[in-house]
């Protein structure tokens, strides 16, 4: 039984978000930093209840997984507080009037980023905390100064309702305007909100078909809005000849652990291992993958979808099985398949698309030219990984232009399934990784998605926003007359 | 007779742009700064020929208009050279490995912006230099490291061809890769290029219907791409009660000059003047507008389109004429109309839409509440202007949230038709001002449109891009471990 927000409640939520937009935008970054910290503290205080709810609805292990994910989520809220106190995110820029400006006299002009307005966030199935009600999109939108309407994922709706209550109450108790945060339920309700003119931007984490459908709706509005969809990713991993020789078995074991982690339900799951032909790792892979315990998938719909895609992959020309996993209700054991680069290059969607679940495909390549040919035919994604040796720098350097085209994050001798939250993180990439390749949905730069620039020309100091006043009352890092 | 690029030539241009993308991306910012300067020098050297061509095709006065526009254009190219030498645009960020990172051990991760790939630029009709072949979109895309395919505007195609020859030759002579810049002609050719998978982003300056049609094509691609359309803007100007009393006549004269400048063919033309009812400026306005000399519009299509829209505005309920301009072939004298805020609020598209040409609408408001009501029903645009007195700070402050929602640039006691190129400039706004409200098409921040972030996790120094190496060989401003 899915929850559904009533039409009247949806109207009330959207009206409240619109009404909150101006007072919320008028808050100072320091105030919002305090509000985000208050939300983090409130969630931490209810950790036990929230983790139990999440476990019951998603079948993910309470520890370390859900406990770690909640810790990540509250850390993320606090980190955006640091972004606000730092102030550089505002991009405050002051150009004084300059009669000698080479293209002609320049007026006094000053630029700063302002909140875009109410943001609609579509929560993900696979991260009930970190990409859901109080997740990265919510944290970055609130940090930017935007009210948030959160469309809950039906896979964990009780958790979503409860988390939403805690977030909304903590915000109001800390002094944020009423109506700045609310959770809604229901597919149609989400679409209605996306079409509503009071919504100024939207974000989404999920599948390519689901995200594309919402993207298309956002773009077809009379007034299109930014839509930040984080969709699919195959996450290729390359094993160089040197790494194969030096530590092939260790790489094979790491790969088995990474692609089967969390029942393969990460957008950064390595879906392809590109390894030199004649690698001789078959037994190691069979043993490592065969030793992974059965794990429950998130829900029946996802488990069934995975089974269908896996059947297509198994039936694809030239693909053979290394480990044939099975399924009992939600519980799956991992599957590993293999093919050659030649078959892969001749293959269709079945070998090229993301398989959301515990399966991966080993592709053997004859030489560097064939490896590059495969890379250059892949669709862009979130990550691309190289396992190599430092003395192969020339070999790896030749791959880098292909890898840079292919992904938002490149990894060296590591696995893509861990995504830290930091200043330098990048979680994104060209379509179909995302619908907005110039942005990130993880890391401090995620705040940029919900800000737009406004320039103030010739205003008296008293009417300028604080960020742009001559005396720089917020002590912001600013660029002034071109100088940092 | 319109020029048309042949199918074979279009294929050659797109193939060359794709082939140039990697060598172009591999150039250093300092190299590209030199290339942009070489282009600027080459254009300046041919100024006489180019201005004559532009005048013949657009009917714009050679001096000061076209001469000034070319100076603006070459200045802009050189300013992006400064952006490249400054280096902050790369957003280089270094997070060292940190085992004590609160959410769990952090790997070494480093983020920098990279070029998106080949950019398709649709040139504008009304700025044959500054928003055309060597204009702001081209300058910012080349600065970012992206090859450019330039779709010429049919309103000045000989100029476009000649400018394109100069730009392409200057780039190659300065050392840029062959194929990094080319001009194409033809509506169908532009659409075919926009649909081509080798194009990674597109930009456009022009009308709402034209821009929306191209935006829809870009969004409907199998892999949608960023589309930066700068479309329409009404550019309201508010006269406060204080400004009316203190200097109403001067404001009226300034308004007449601004909306009729260049035959009203600026995207920043003030299309609405909001002035207190009973203003008593009718005679001043009639005299100032009546004294503006007849000016040629850009071409027959634009002149005819203007006449149609003006007829709709004249026929709109409650609208009356203050000055009835006329048209002789391309030559137009300006028209001024007036209505009340009440009629405006009850009115439809005819009073609310941009009229591209020498016409504007004076709207009288009863009080501040009615003024704000009008502002809050306007569609967003590029600019909003206030003519006020410093002792009215409270009155103006109450308008600012409405104005900030409404535009990308706010002006005080000035006119929006001048758009300086500088670090703080913002030329954009929510739809229909643009299709990308988080960006600008003028000013140094325009480069951000053509860059996407990539993070490098755990890479050895020798394999990192120069911008991210530990020794910071380019001496970039970087954020390291959260500290600026």
Automatic annotation (TrEMBL), chains A, B:
Keyword list, A-Z: Oxidoreductase
InterPro entries: Ald_DH/histidinol_DH, Ald_DH_C, Ald_DH_N, Aldehyde_DH_dom, Aldehyde_DH_Superfamily, ALDH_KGSADH
Any GO molecular function: oxidoreductase activity, acting on the aldehyde or oxo group of donors, NAD or NADP as acceptor
Name of this protein: NADP-dependent aldehyde dehydrogenase
Keyword Kinase in annotation: no
Annotated Aldehyde dehydrogenase domain residues: 6-422
Keyword Cytoplasm assigned: no
CDD domains, A to Z: ALDH_KGSADH (cd07129)
